[in-house]
Amino acid sequence: MRKQRRALQEASISFLDVISCGFGAIVLLLVIARVGDPSALEEAENQLLGSVKDYQERLFEIRGESVVLDERLKSRKEQLSELTERVARLKEKLASLSKQSNQLSQSQSREKEQLQLVLQVLSEEMQRLLGPEFLQQNQLVGGIPADSDYIIFVIDTSGSMQVAAWEKVKKEMLNILDIYPEVKGIQVLNDMGQYMFVNYANKWMSDSPEMRKKIISKLANWAPFSNSSPVEGINAAIQTFYKPGRRISIYTLGDDYQGRSIRNVVKAVDKLNKAHRGADRLVRIHAIGFPVHFPPGGTPSASAIKFAALMRELSYNNGGTFIGLNSLN
Q1: Which 3 state secondary structure label does DSSP give 257?
Q2: What's the number of domains the chain is made of?
Q3: pTM of the prediction?
């Protein structure tokens, strides 16, 4: 009985081993072999390969853009470095110029103080030598005697002055008025003797800040007829407003003279304003010439030259000053 049982057990184990190996082989075949539709698998594989290719191309593009951006960043850094260096150099120059300016300002301040001291010493010495007459003869502002209590403007209102020099006329009138902080009377005529304010004809206008503003404002639209000759206006001013004891200055503003004879005008004014030079005249006559007829780089017109010659002679003979402007700006 024991021998038969041992033989049956050996035969059963070999059979199971064979069966197990067979099943294992089948499982391996199922795992290794492709299961399903081959075309679907191939399509899926192609899609995967296409996706991989797209991702690779995108990666290459990103790498290329990254290289370009790196180059731009490098260029910007170089530019920033250059600008920083330029700013540093400019700051150094600015500091140097500021230092030089401060030194120059200090030097000018010291020179000004020294000149003021010298002027004070000279003035005291002149006053000691000349006495009270020195103060009366030294009232000059910009070379113009500013010792008058009354001022009269005689203005050329011709078309050339209106078009080319009127704004400059306003500025020069303001400058003249600034020379005289306060006067007893003001009057404004054109070169023909016509009054700016008809209701003040033949009488003085009281000086005030409001009146000065009114004169400048009225000048903008004031355009009476003019013959470009100041003779009539000067004669009217002297004959109408001079009285003994009045210190009067006439300011003639013009650009040209259309009359024939300068000598006849000088003689006529000399006769009217006395024949003595300097302080013995009844009124002072100043003049300002506007370069309307002086073309840049060209020859001035004959009428402009005549005006300059006439007003220079009149101002010299009548205790005044002639100023010829070199620009209308």
Answers
A1: coil
A2: 2
A3: 0.58
